[in-house]
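Give me structure tokens for this 299-residue protein.
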Amino acid sequence: MIDIRFQEYFFDMEGNFLMQYHYGNYGFIQHEQMEELPLILLDTGIEKRTDISYHYDNSHRLSYGGYLIQYTLKGCGIYEENGQKTLLQPGMGFFVQMPQNSSYYLPQSPENQEWEFFYLHFNGSAAKAFWNTCQTQAGSVFTLPLDSSPILLYFQFFENYRRNGSLALYESSEFLYRFLAQLLRELETPRLNESHLIVQAMQYIRQHFATLESISQVADVCNISHEHLTRCFRKETGQTPLQYLTKLRIEHALSLLLNTSDSIEQIAMNCGFQNGNYFAKVFRKYMQCTPEEYRRRNG
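Here you go.
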């Protein structure tokens, strides 16, 4: 079910108000002079899905060709490609060419039966070049901060159209070019407001999350104190290094639960947790269910 009656408020990781948005979907009729444009917007919208029947198999969508970007705002969904499942949490999206062997749908878990997102469906002779570059940089699934420039640009475009009900000639193509260019720029380079110190710390945590024994190890690599690292990290990212580490471990655990038959104890050790019991405790705190329940509902 699509709910277009209500508006939501948009926040960043630290809870700062950014903007409000409305649900809705819009299709665009293409004029003859626009048919040969390098980028053509076909339809777009902001949706909130709550019914587990929401499931699209992209390999069968022959009449819905072109390219699709879908970005999670709240809740979560699952993107599956060639048997590999990825849980799409807020700040995560996918960029696909259709038709292809992929699908996306709501998780079966009652705790996660809500997925709020925006999508862009488009085509054009230049679209494939952007898609190819995104595939090289990030693959089909990408991560962007909720307050990054392409996301804010989308909301500005969507709200302007919602209020005015029309677009100037070539306006949608101009928007698509700017959005895709900003998307690739965000994926290719670190955000400007992230200091070199935090970039170094985040890279080290990502590379060693399964074996890190303490955040002090990260501080030592960065040649600063544990307290200074925590203070700077929170200022830049809105979370502590330990919270970031735990998030990475849980995300990796979700992938292993969905894509392997490893035991809970094995997954715990592979993700850097001391044992299966501690892993289950942390997992329940983040996901409101046990690892076994999550695997059974979504596997």
